[in-house]
Amino acid sequence: MSTIAPALPDRACLDTFQEAIGEWQLQPSQRCLLIVDAAQCDEHEVTNVLYAECNDPNWCWLFENSPLEPFADAGPIIVDTLINSKFCRHALAQWADKGLLFLFTESAVDKAVAGLRDMLSVDLETAGPCLLRPYDTRFLQVLSACQPDQMAELAGVDSTWVWSVDLLSHVQWSGFQTIGAAKQIKTHQSRDFERLLGWVFGWPSCLPFVDRDRRADATTLTRFIVNQWHSGVACDSRSVELEAQWQAFRMGESEIVSELKKASK
């Protein structure tokens, strides 16, 4: 059983990037670091678009200055740009379903992404050394809801992160904000964190349930995962029990809503 107190999403996922910008009080002309997982696109697609849309692009590979530096060109690209740049507009139109990550900070690039680089490799309590994809927006969505303190360590100092969440039929937007001094990333992770990774891996298996449920969205799926994770349930994405767990959760939510409506009368 998890010993960590439950943490439900304190903000609902939003339907558009513009809504997310408004929610976090960001400006269209504001500087951002846009992280695109180039591995999810065709070879050279991201860099070709970057040089086509920008006269003198300022960019680097996320895997630079990390243990994965030999594989840098197989990983995400970081573009130092503006929200209203042509490249950002292209990314929003073409790659939002692949998981876009925007970092809003005044820090230099290396400082801003230090947490991501530190978490590329972790030591799990039972599985041992493991390579992670901490830039995966499904991971960010689950981590920020289940372990917000750990998410704050990852985000570092004075920054706002906004990312896209793919739901098969559409994309929604979520985010996280941290204020204060950066904290040291924990490279040794507990069994709670390992179960969290299981739910990140199981996220795609849950998407058909959300797609068939007209009242469900990314916020609903996040609540479901937080509930299961906090209850000590491990995710088995191949099990038929996963859908039964989803249905039981949704029924429980419906009953709570009904009770609240009765109490308000």
Task: Please outline the helices and strands.
Blueprint: H1 17-23, E1 31-36, H2 45-53, E2 58-61, E3 77-82, H3 86-94, E4 101-104, H4 109-112, H5 114-118, E5 121-124, E6 128-131, H6 137-146, H7 148-155, E7 159-166, E8 171-178, E9 188-189, H8 191-212, H9 218-230, H10 241-264
Parallel strand pairs: 5-9
Antiparallel strand pairs: 1-3, 1-4, 2-3, 4-7, 5-6, 7-8
Largest sheet, in brief, is:
6 strands, antiparallel
User: For the largest beta sheet, what order do the strands appear in spatially?
Assistant: 2-3-1-4-7-8
Please state the CA-atom Rg, rounded to the nearest Å. Answer: 19 Å
Query: How far is it from the N-terminal to the C-terminal residue, by CA?
Result: 37 Å
Q: Could you name the ranges where pLDDT drops below 50 across 5 or more consecutive residues?
A: 1-7
How are helices and strands ordered from N to C? Answer: HEHEEHEHHEEHHEEEHHH
Q: Number of helical segments?
A: 10
What is the number of beta strands? 9
**How much β-strand is present in the residues?**
15-25%
Helix content: 40-55%
Please tell me the overall pLDDT: 90
Class derived from helix and strand content: alpha+beta
Form type: globular
Description:
The structure is a single chain. The protein has ten helices and nine strands. With about 260 residues, it is α+β, with helices and mostly antiparallel strands. The chain has a domain at about 15-190. A hairpin with a 4-residue loop joins strand 7 (about 160-165) and strand 8. About 35% of the residues are buried. Mean pLDDT is about 90; it is low at about 1-5.
